[in-house]
Amino acid sequence: MLMWAIPLFITTSTWFSYRSRRRWAYWPAAMIIAIAAVIFFLLFLANLYATLGGAAGGILFMLIMGYASFSSFQRVRYHFSPLYRQGYTTFVPTPEADLEEGEMLAACPSCMAVLAIRPDLLSPSDSCPHCNSPLVSKELAQRHGWEEE
Length: 149
Known about the structure:
The chain is mainly alpha-helical. It has helices spanning 5-19, 26-52, 59-78, 82-89, 138-143; strands at 104-107, 114-117.
């Protein structure tokens, strides 16, 4: 009677464990994605058959299922990559965690170096520590009425 509840519980708990990066859920989640890809592909084939039979109403659904199956198979292939597995299993600290209050990450417009800046303290006289180019263009400073300090 409730035979659907057990697979639903297993699939849901595996998926949420995978999203939480639990080590045990890596390959079971890849299998769930692979099963979904096969289901998408079977729906694609069924709609392709119906479309070839003259039912043009399934063309959009066929295209969506084709894209979903292709994307899901690509996602399963990622799981065989050592880099993807390493990124899944190891903790990578984010640089945003070390920012002080009011700081944000920004790129230098000249050399694209990533800098921690305080937008409220930025002025036209500020320059990049890597290339010494100004961080605020003269046009932007004039447009906002900033004066050279």
